[in-house]
Amino acid sequence: MPISREEIEHIAELSRLSLTEEEKEKFGKQLDSILAYISQLNEVDTRRVEPTAQVSGLADVWRPDEVKPWDQSEVAAALRQGELEGGQIKVKRVL
Amino acid sequence: MSLNTLTLQQARTKLDKREITALELTEACLARITQVDADIRACLLVCADEARTAARAADERLRRGEKGGLLGIPYLCKDNIMVKGLATTAASRIIENYLAPYDATVIKKLKQAGAVLLGKTNLDEFAHGASTENSAYGPTHNPRHLSHVPGGSSGGSAAAVAADMCIFAIGSDTGGSIRYPASFCGVFGLKPSYGRVSRFGLLSMTSSTDVIGPLTKTAEDAALVLQVIAGPDEHDATTTPEPVGKYTQAVAAAKDLKGMTIGWPKEYFIKDLDSRVAARVRAAAEKLEAADAKFKEVSLPYTKYGIPVYYIITPSEISSNLARFDGIGWGKAHQEADNLQDFYKYSRGSGFGPEAKRRIMLGTYALSAGYYDAYYKKAQAVRTLIINDFAAAFKEVDLLLTPAAPHPAFKIGEHLDDPLAMYLEDVFMSGASLAGLPAISVPAGLVEHREGTPLPVGAQLIGPRLSEAAVLQAAKILEQAK
To answer: Environment class of residue B147 by beta-carbon count within 10 Å: exposed (0-12), middle (13-18) or buried (19+)?
Structure first.
């Protein structure tokens, strides 16, 4: 079933992407053909198969919940890469 | 002989014998970049001054008698890995003004080892692609044939090694992004096991398959680099505590493959495989047999589902990982919007290129309410079956030999705007990525093509988890076989 224009707009909204009309049209068609290809997964019986989330060979990697020191110049470099006002990162109004 | 054409091992020997200095080697690479990169466009950034400073420091360490596999060796690094103080763009407009505040763990290790960073290489934006055409800064050209793609997504790194702009390069491989361009450019590309090399400081794409690894001129060189960058890292909880192998020693000692059984997975020799590539892979098998390896046909029945599984899991993880690029604190800000929601949408809509947007959309769709079970969970289950296929095969054989890509490099623009055709390029790559296995692309010779210059093709060797030493040994034997 092809993805409707409403669905494309909904996905773009969830993705926080502004799309042009042309992009909506193009991505809609392309997602249709990709999803049609992917639908071959339905041939596979997976009723008794556990899903795999990761392949690290590890489980439950714990560490103490402690604050560790980090180079302060690096912290400062990470935090100054936006629009600043009074030493704070400035963002647009929410409402 | 120009010093930039040396292999890592050759350069190592000359540096240790004091026949050359790290600075001379670095200058030779920088000169080569100046000479050829206007046409190839492998580098997004060249840090010549920093490289010379690092080379002088390495020469000082060498003078004091220090030894080390990578001490004084110039390299290039894919631009999705952070180097403190340098721009890290991931070939995207959305972070084009971003300066990395800290070093990735691999960079920290390479700096400590005395390797000399020459610059950053081009890639498909955020490593989304197989041709390097998805870079916001324009495509990289295949050094063998400039009208052709170098493969991707680590296309800049592969092209740079093939054109001798550096002694080795660092790339990242999520679903073939080291191995596939290595095959198109005729160099070695090693994807280590998932968790063998820290990803701290790599811009995350698909966290469940992303791996960092080397692109080199020989198998031995790949071992030398892996030896330095492998190991656990407290900043990456997915790194394995298993001891790092003795890769350089194992590869140096490799003389034959007596006692080794190599599997020939029949599902990898499909009708879409270019017959010239198939012939080169068969020739590789004969060389390995001549070195006393035994061959056995094996079956990996779920192979054909690798691409559909990969193109659900990858976009899903991308849609989550790329959510952090919200336009705030990444250097670039879109000023037109007057509220936060619109600001996000405009920043992302104008900052991401088409393939990044497509993958974010696809992943968001697959993870959205009502579709999660049908797509994401289904793909995760089939991923288990693909992993089980490999596990069963490795009960019978030690390694697998496959083609790396279905054909040699294609022309720039040939698959433009046909994303599905590009996804199918990963057909021989996605399995080892989904299963987290080590795999290497080894140059398997040249094939003729209609426009003259022959193009390289690659054979892939895949091994069980953490079997990098065996994979590299077989790669070396294949390399040296006549």
So the answer is: middle
